[in-house]
């Protein structure tokens, strides 16, 4: 009897986790990119007009998040060097609940060469999800969502790289 109770308990926890994850998605494949405006004293401002006709990767992270650190290290090592000079691509790395000052201090340690945009009140993050980071949203040149991921694995990151290449 105890074995069955443990099994059912584990299955119930998994179901709750899956349902909670499903509820956090606010956009799905094929949806248009939310009209976001990013303001950074360090990197300037980004408006929806700046993104028209481009493949756009929105990467949402937090400085305290270990999986985010792994993903951003791969962005620095692999993704950004490959696409930073491509006029058809735009990378938006957004710090959830971080200010420009927070991100500047963080980047003094990390030495990332790509821009980090603040989202101190979760205003941008809330357009995409309610919880869980890191998150990546890839939009095609038509402005529609073509790929999304939550969490980080090397395999997932490679899939993202492949999707970017195909979209360009």
From TrEMBL:
Q: Cite the CDD domains for this sequence.
A: TlpA_like_family
Residues covered by the Thioredoxin domain: 27-166
Q: Which domain of life is it from?
A: Bacteria
Signal peptide positions on this chain: 1-22
Annotated keywords: Redox-active center, Signal
* InterPro entries linked: AhpC/TSA (IPR000866), Thioredoxin-like_sf (IPR036249), Thioredoxin_CS (IPR017937), Thioredoxin_domain (IPR013766), Thioredoxin_ResA/DsbE_sf (IPR050553)
Protein name as annotated = TlpA family protein disulfide reductase
């Amino acid at each position: 009897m105890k074995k069955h109770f443990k099994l059912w308990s584990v299955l119930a926890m998994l179901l709750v986790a899956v349902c909670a994850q499903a509820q956090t998605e606010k956009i799905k494949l094929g949806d248009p990119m939310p009209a976001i405006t990013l303001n950074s004293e360090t990197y300037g401002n980004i408006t929806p007009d700046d993104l028209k006709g481009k493949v756009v990767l929105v990467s949402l992270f937090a400085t305290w998040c270990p999986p985010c650190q792994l993903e951003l290290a791969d962005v620095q090592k692999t993704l950004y060097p490959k696409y930073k000079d491509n006029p058809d691509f735009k990378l938006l790395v957004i710090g959830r609940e971080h200010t420009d000052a927070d991100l500047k201090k963080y980047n003094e340690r990390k030495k990332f060469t790509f821009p980090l945009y603040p989202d101190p009140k979760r205003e941008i993050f809330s357009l995409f999800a309610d919880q869980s980071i890191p998150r990546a949203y890839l939009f095609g040149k038509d402005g529609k969502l073509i790929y999304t991921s939550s969490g980080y694995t090397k395999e997932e990151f490679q899939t993202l790289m492949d999707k970017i290449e195909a979209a360009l």
